[in-house]
Amino acid sequence: MNLKGKVCLVTGGTSGIGAATALTLARKGAHIASVSRKAVQTPDSLLSAVSSHGTTARFLEGDVADPAACRQCVEQVVKDFGRLDVLVHSAGGPVPGGFYAVTDESWMNAFAVHVHSIFHLTRAAAPHMAQQGGERSSCWDPQLACAAVWAQQPTV
Fold first, then answer.
1. Given Cys at both, which of 8, 14, 73, 92 links 62, Cβ 3.0 to 4.6 Å?
2. Does some domain include residue 155?
3. What is the number of structural domains in the chain?
4. Residue 149 is inside which H or E element, if any?
5. How many CB atoms are located within 10 Å of the residue 147 CB?
6. Which segments within 12-143 are labelled E, that is strand?
């Protein structure tokens, strides 16, 4: 897969699976925009690895459990890079605590991060991705397998 010059938005891209995905995409020539819920120190190893492949990286703070933050992240990526080609959802982790210890709030937040955010991110990203010439855009979530979304060109 040739991603040279493509712009990829990766949620949860500062650590774990998200960081490994960002690095893999950069190795294939993609520019990376990574979203993290908290302002964290981006690992120097990730920054240098991305730049060593001749690509650029931007790191954004945003909680993908919040629909408005999903829209803001997508719009910021388009503003910074002028386009968006790939959306990778890798934010979140397991719900803390065992079955009987999980609170309703933790359970609902997990769904907001793992499920609802895919909808909100994809809905915000699909029009921009469709502008790149294709009508098919993909949202990858390593935790939920692959969810494909067909973005139709807007009719005028």
1. 73
2. no
3. 1
4. strand 145-150
5. 14
6. 31-36, 57-61, 86-89, 136-141
